[in-house]
Write a structure and sequence with these properties.
The complex is a heterodimer of chains A (321) and B (241). Chain A is mainly α and 321 residues long. Chain A is 71% helix and 1% strand. Chain A is built from 14 helices and two strands, in the order ααααααβααααβαααα. A two-stranded antiparallel sheet of chain A has the order 1-2. In chain A, helix 3 packs parallel to helix 5. Chain B is α/β, with parallel strands linked by helices and 241 residues long. Chain B folds into two domains: 156 residues, Rossmann fold (3-Layer(aba) Sandwich); 70 residues. Chain B contains nine helices and ten strands. In chain B, the strands form three sheets. Chain B has a six-stranded mixed beta sheet with strand order 6-7-8-3-9-10, sandwiched between helices. In chain B, a hairpin with a 2-residue loop joins strand 9 and strand 10. In chain B, helix 3 packs parallel to helix 5 and helix 4 packs across helix 5. The model of chain B has no long low-confidence stretch (mean pLDDT 86). Classes of the chains: A mainly alpha (321), B alpha/beta (241). At the A-B interface, helix 7, helix 8, helix 9 and helix 10 of A face helix 2 and helix 3 of B.
Chain lengths: 321, 241
């Protein structure tokens, strides 16, 4: 798959020159949500933590960036970085609490935290703007007078750059000593503990890392859309991003980006056809869970007949690294 | 120490000392409390009364990962592996668990290479060298048991706790495992506590045997003495009350 990297990067770089404006906007949104889904994959695919409240970090990133851009007058790159760092910092105590539990309780706790933040965004009128949210979030130029990202194409390039950079960082993260330990905890937590790893500490590390990249995605969204609203914290978004990860293929980093693209594509096309587009999307999701558990990425990677050979070919089967 | 489950005293007033370099087996009929004793020593269960002391330090109440960091490694009675990871990665993670760079979250390539080489050495010693790339979950049961021993050894423990290493193995596989274990333990650098059902395995490996029956020690000594002990014989024949 490695040979595809260069053409894909070239296509990403050239997109503004080729695509009409409305498609470029759609593509920007796909990349932002792709980053968001990729960050959730660190939890779902690599650590075995099924978070049902990942919208919390998206909303937190979006609101933090919006408040910094609207109120503090900082430049966009500084606001993005600060929002991602702030989200990661908030994730430390939240992760500490949520990882006391596992399985369904963990999912419910994360959901509860996201809904709590939703309620805060809704009620704290003076700071968050309540149900109206924060409008007119600017793409403030700077530092050092940099302003290329204020245009539609420039902002697209900024998002694409953030996604590629985050992907490279996440890839290094999952291959690192800490990252490989996460896979062990996902596979057998008791054994990882018996080997001398403290599962809880590693889970918190994964939680905080996922929050950093998820927060960055949210921070990119607010100046892209020009506003932040309480919906960014809502459980529907948590569910949607989980669908993106599973359709795309959990545990692959790139799969969830494809999942985000597929999700938005389906949503846009189906909603033109029928009002019950969510029903069709749900059916597609069920099909994936039942028949394509390894997701779109697994379909792309799977060589024909490789699967049939698996049970007999015990000694020779090379597992994915 | 003792361990009760409700009214049942699974382990009652058991006191034992394992010397450094010794291979000690704990045997006893079903329900004798072997597994409970083992799990208390490994930190998976808390004793109801008493303590477990390792190198003059009380281990009681420490979580499993902290006990492991003090130089104890264990295997599980029901094989516990990372089934979706490769054989090599399973052992590599065991070797990595005590390496100083295990917390690195970026890079760490040199550390991975070093731990991989170490893992390969252990897999060679357990004759699993040609399976390094296979998924651990796809190995035969016998190879999985050996892989678990490789993982325990790759942690370079001072005390190795083996929970029925030949459980569920065929006669041939049992013979192979015993031969390998004798070979690996022959240098006497490792202290071993072994819980085992198979008497042949016990008598061909252990220096000293402790016999449990209904949660109590009924005999303790060299294999020859234990074999001749009338209390042991009647316990295994079901006569002792």
């Amino acid at each position: 798959m490695r040979w595809l990297a260069l053409p894909v990067l070239a296509a990403l770089a050239a997109a503004p020159a080729i695509l009409p404006d409305f498609l470029l906007t759609s593509l920007t949104e796909v990349l932002i949500l792709g980053l968001f889904a990729m960050s959730l994959d660190l939890l779902v695919g690599y650590t075995g933590l099924d978070s049902f409240g990942h919208a919390a970090v998206y909303g937190l990133g979006a609101y933090t960036a919006s408040l910094l851009l609207l109120g503090a007058g900082v430049s966009l790159p500084v606001a993005l970085l600060a929002a991602a760092l702030f989200t990661a910092m908030v994730a430390v105590p939240v992760g500490w609490l949520c990882t006391r539990t596992t399985g369904v309780s963990f999912a419910m706790l994360t959901l509860a935290f996201a809904q709590l933040l939703y309620a805060v965004a809704y009620k704290w009128q003076s700071v968050t703007g309540g149900s109206d949210g924060l409008a007119g979030v600017p793409r403030t130029p700077g530092p050092l007078g940099i302003s290329w990202f204020t245009s539609r194409a420039g902002y697209y390039h900024l998002v694409a750059g953030c996604l590629v950079g985050s992907f490279l960082l996440c890839r290094a993260f999952v291959a690192s000593p800490l990252g490989t330990t996460l896979l062990a905890i996902r596979d057998n937590e008791r054994k990882a503990s018996a080997l001398g790893y403290n599962p809880r500490a590693y889970k918190i590390a994964a939680f905080v890392t996922a929050a950093f990249f998820g927060g960055l995605a949210g921070a990119l969204y607010a100046p892209f859309a020009g506003f932040a609203s309480p919906d960014l914290f809502f459980w529907i978004l948590s569910g949607q991003v989980l669908v993106m990860v599973i359709i795309g293929g959990a545990g692959s980093l790139l799969g969830p980006i494809a999942g985000a693209a597929a999700f938005l594509l389906l949503e846009q096309h189906l909603s033109g056809f029928t009002d019950s587009w969510a029903l069709v999307l749900g059916l597609i999701f069920i099909v994936f869970v039942l028949f394509v558990p390894e997701g779109l990425w697994g379909l792309v990677r799977r060589r024909p007949f490789a699967r049939a050979a698996l049970p007999r070919d015990i000694g020779g089967e090379r597992a994915a690294p | 120490m003792s361990r009760h489950f409700g009214a049942l005293a699974a382990v009652a007033d058991v006191s034992m000392t394992v010397e450094a370099g010794e291979i000690r087996a704990v045997i006893g009929p079903n329900g004798a409390g072997k597994s409970t004793l083992f799990n208390v020593i490994a930190g998976a269960l808390r004793p109801t009364t008493g303590t477990v002391i390792f190198k003059r330090e009380a281990l009681t109440g420490l979580p499993p990962h902290a006990i492991c960091a003090r130089g104890l490694s264990r295997t599980f009675q029901l094989t516990a592996l990372f089934p979706r990871l490769t054989v090599l990665e399973n052992v590599r993670l065991a070797a990595q668990a005590r390496a100083p760079g295990r917390w690195r979250f970026l890079g760490g390539r040199a550390m991975r290479a070093a731990t991989s080489r170490e893992a390969e050495r252990w897999l060679e010693r357990l004759r699993l060298g040609d399976m390094v790339g296979a998924r651990a979950g796809l190995l035969s049961h016998g190879d999985q048991r050996l892989l678990e021993i490789a993982m325990a050894l790759a942690q370079r423990p001072e005390l190795l706790l083996l929970d029925e290493p030949t459980q569920g193995l065929s006669v041939e596989e049992t013979g192979r495992t015993v031969t390998l274990l004798r070979e690996l333990l022959s240098d006497g650098r490792l202290t071993v506590l072994l819980v085992e059902h198979d008497m042949e395995v016990v008598f061909s490996l252990a220096h000293r045997i402790t016999v449990l029956h209904q949660g109590r020690v009924i005999a303790d000594g060299a294999p020859g003495e234990v074999k001749r002990d009338p209390a042991v014989q009647s316990a295994y024949l079901g006569g002792l009350e």
